[in-house]
## 1
Amino acid sequence: MSPFLSSAGKAVVLPHSFRCCLNVLPVAVCLLLTSCANHDLPEARSAFYQGNYELAKAEIGAEILAGKDAVLVLMERGTVYQAEGEYEKSAMDFIRANDILALLETYSVSEGVESWVVNDTLYSFEGAPFEQTILHSMTALNHLASNNLQDGGVEARRIIHSLRLEERGEDYPDDAFSRYLAAFILEMTGDLPNAEAQYIVADELLPDYSIDKRGRIGGDPEQFSDTSVTERELVCFFLLGRSPSMRELRGESSHSFFPPRIQLYGEGRHLGDATVLSSVYDLAFSTWNLEAPARLAKMVARIAAKEAVARKIEEQDAALGALARIVLIGMLERPDFRRWETLPRWLAVARVPYPEGLTSFEVRLHGEGIPVGTTYPVQRPLVQHGNVVFSFVRDLPGFNSGKRDKEIDKLH
Amino acid sequence: MNSSLLTSLAWASVIALSLSGCSAFRMSTTDVHPEDLEHYRADYDASDMRKITTAVVDKMLVSPFMAGQSSPPIMTIAGVENRTREYVDTKNLTDRMRTMLLQSGRMQFVNTARRQDLLNEQGYQAANANPEQMATLGAQAGARYMITGSLTQMTQQTGKQARLSKQRLNYYKLTMEITDLTSSLIVWTSEEEFARNESIPLIGW
């Protein structure tokens, strides 16, 4: 029996039923906390990968844009808009996600307590540092596609800021693709010294390729001996494949380490190949490994605390204790696997000569899991700045060849 | 102090707290004079826009360039380049400068932003208006000088370490130039700068 002291200093014995209620109170609170964490993101992602963008947006809905997963939802919806060619709407979602991220800089004690008591999914989603950088890259691509170089410049500076060691964290991976994109935008805005600095950093991140100070990419640095670039160029950014699943990241299923070969053709002539600068798998895998020990330690401590609560209840009532264990550990304990899942797998760039008069080009993909003869005609976005024509391509794998052709019309 | 007095005080405190709590949860609005705007963050905001445009215009009006003008020069504003990490409406900045300069009576501006609308109206008038009242074609004023500028930002912040708050310092610089469209010489330039520090709590409710 639990004696409490009354105001008169006398011991008060609480009735058994009241003590049982007090004991199950933590379980009830935990259930209450998890009640609002559900959403339809898996269905939305599935619809996105099937090319059904309308359904994907409908599944996301408007009501969950304000919850703890608001940033994640905006990232996913922005990706859907981008694949649809709705670049300004996509940019608005990404910018809004970034604005919310700025507010999450302060650690929320209330959410922190909830995540310690129930599980990590109760803490507002902030994304990994590489996801925050790619958020700026995606926004920048939208601005470029909308021929909005000034706002593209804002995102280029945000990319560089987010990749500073003190921002991303010393052990977190750098991102050559985002560096290249930032450099390209700075080059387009005439900020050549800063563009060169970013091209140099991107070059240092790529052991197998060379990038010169003008942004030209190749396997052999000697080929860049000519310092003047006078011919018309096409700079095309490629967002290819599907971001790795959690099973792939944890090594529970096999996946291809080999990037696809991306060839560009104009009127039947081979213009050149694209180079994969970043792999989202590598970025996610490094981040996952870096954070795994802390995540595991927190989970073990939380399970131990929940087990202690279940045992305490068990001392009063064995059946209630077993029920509490099932609820607290069996039902509520779950790892936080929230990720920006509609990200592409490979991030590539092509910088190739682009003859005058060409108004479209063709992309041919070769690689594991890609149907033979997969070809994309690209007509938009094609934005010209001086001698440089900008474009980008989002490829969604998983379609069979026939269906893929239909989806191409939707993409471009 | 007897127990009844203590009880009364406790009740009074509860009622006072409840009432103040109620007002805190009510939505309310307050008019704020644009001169009295406060900064909530270290980022560029409306009061900064007002302050730097006023300072630049004041400097421009007392400059040797203006002293050397026998009549109000005809100007065009090409815009201010945003080179910050923030989405800044630089059109807003140049609009305010143009308004202040025009109201001073010391400068004239051609309307470059509405050039197409002007041409449309002139075309309409040429086809439909009374010839005596019609705007003369080919007689628009040509700007002699162009105003351009850039807004830049530099940020410093404390690194990731054990602490209760993060310090962030934002420095902004607005550079404005007047270029002679005939000679392409920069005839006047000025800088306006400001910096602001913010302390962001790393732990909150």
Note: Chain B has a mean pLDDT of 89.
## 2
Amino acid sequence: MKRRSFVQASMALGSFGVLGGMVGCASVGRVPEKARVVVVGGGYGGATAAKYVRMLSNYQIDVTLIEPNGEFVSCPISNLVIGGSKTMADITTPYDKLSGKHGVNIVRDYVASVDPVKKTVTLASGPTIRYDKLVMSPGIDLMFNTIEGLKEANASGQILQAWKAGPETLALRKQLESMNDGGVYAITIPEAPYRCPPGPYERASQVAHYFKQHKPKSKVLILDANQDVTSKGPLFKKFWADNYKDILEYMPQHKVMAVDAKTNTLKFDVQNDVKADVLNVLPAMRAGGIAVQSSLANVNTRWCGVHYQTFESTQAKDIHVIGDSIMLAPLMPKSGHMANSHGKVTAAAIVAQLSDMPVNPTPFLSNTCYSFVNDKLVVHVASVHQYDNKDKTYKTVSGSGGVSSAPNELEGIYAWNWAQNIWADSLM
Amino acid sequence: MCANCHGTDGRTIEGSAIPSLVGMPKDYMVLQMKAFKDGSRPATVMHQITKGLTDTQIDIISSYYAAIKR
């Protein structure tokens, strides 16, 4: 299949697949003066966009990926590290295939600023790179300042978020291991939208499973700013009632206003204070800092508006924003699976635009999200989203999507294979 | 669309219970996708995904994977 027919095939279907073909040479750390495509952020969105621009252009378009971390650490599955059934090594993937196999030039740095007029990004270390197309995939920023006392308590390592998988994931696991039997773990959830809607409920389930096995006198408290469980609610609540009845307590309409690190106490806008041994506070979230700073977060200064057909910013030409940073179309969650899909639709659009070919008028994408309720049983939610050219947004296809009928072990196997396959699809 | 779970180019990782799609015969894949869609083949998630696809989209996807060499 020639490149043209391949891109057309991929345009007919959003985008997927790959041609075998030329493989570029890896060159990690080289800072070029110019790259046709610069990608900021090597998570599910950015890594996928970088790889698929290379593949869909038959390895003709050069891509530089700017990422501060030396390895990819997955948020999906990281709750199992906190629960104790997986390790950090299980959720960590190196970037070497992205460079070695796909010829993505990886620069390990932060971006200090973006100039959408000159079409340049300036790295924290100083150099400037020109681009024809910029893909911004900076994930989320946690708004620590929205909760009094949280910034200092987090910086000292006392009150963790562990919502960006990495050192805090392991640190939270260690706090739970050190906690005495009979202690209390409390997780707080901000008002939606936030990264990974079912994630906090999965995490609470993982901690409850760990307590049930090893610290049966201990308790899990979920303090949710929302009115009810925001994802897979009936499935989670039934499993908690059947399996964690005396361990886990769910409390909606609990919006945290302040933390008192001296007494490890949470203060709410209406409800009474709650004291716990291990506090896991998730503040409100917004688009990654560089997107906000670059004025791309033009929806409530929190999320980045995009044209959904191409994921090009509504704020700046030739800058595409993908992943958790964007203002999503209705019923699209902030998930790794979605970000990976954004990366492919964007890669196909960019390759078409740089090749003077028409952009797919009707991309579509899907979401599949698995949550572990203990170390083996899983529930999922799935959806299919078709771009509507008339209304310029994605709409879920009528009759598609849904959730598991009940937690089951078969989906536990699929969930782990999903993770391994999407890591390979994004990074290898 | 498919690659997130079934791997780039339909190639899953070694030992994956989720099947590879690369080189799958077109007629077989069309039949399976339609069986998921109409509920005659039980599934955990594929029935919910295929209900989001038109028969034309199922045809294009199946042709694509059938054309790739294993």
Note: The radius of gyration of chain A is 22 Å.
